[in-house]
Amino acid sequence: MDELDRKTLRFLMKQGRGTWAELGKLLHLTAPAAAERARKLEADGTILGYAALTNPEKLGFPLTAYVSVTIGDQRKRYEFLRLVEKQHQIVECHHVAGEDDYQLKVRCRGTRDLDHFLSKTLKDGIGVARTRTTIVLGTAKETVKTPIE
To answer: Where do the structural domains in the chain lie, given as residue ranges?
Structure first.
C-alpha cells in the first residue's frame, strides 16, 4: 500500500459520497485513474463496502449496551453465532480473550427491550451460561474509521 492508497482510503472514510473527480484532484490524478485506485482496494478486500452512517436515536434505538457473554456448552457456539447473525439489535460481536467468550454491542429501544433481549433472546436454550451488561450513558467518540499508517 502506497501513499496514494492511504490518501484514497482517508478520503473515502471521510467522504464516502465524494466524487471521483474530487478524489482525483486530491491525488493529482484523473477521475478515472482515481476510481481505478479505489476499485483495486475493493478488489483486494481492503475496502469491504460502503454504507450510510445512521443515528440510532432517530431510528428508535437510543440505548446502547455492551454485553459480555460466556457460553456454557461450547458445542452450542455455532448456534450462538447463528443467532448473532439473525439479530438486528446486535451491531457488533467480537470473540474475546479473558473471562468471557464474546463481547456484543447491542442497540435497543430502551431498558425493557434490553431486558427482553437478554432474558428471552440470549438466555433461552442456546447455551449462554452468563451475561454481564454495561449500559452506555453517553458517547464521547464513536467512529467507523480505521487507522491508516
So the answer is: 3-43, 63-135
CATH code linked to domain 63-135: 3.30.70.920
d(CA 149, CA 145) in angstroms, rounded, equals: 13
Q: Which 3-state string (H, E, C) describes 68-130?
A: EEEECCHHHHHHHHHHHHHCCCEEEEEECCCCCCEEEEEEECCHHHHHHHHHHHHCCCCCEEE
| Residue 23: strand, helix, or coil | helix
Query: Under CATH, which number does the domain 3-43 receive?
Result: 1.10.10
C-alpha cell recorded at residue 36? 481505478
For the whole prediction, is pTM greater than 0.70? Answer: yes
94-130 confidence digits (pLDDT tens):
999 999 999 999 999 999 999 999 999 988 768 899 9
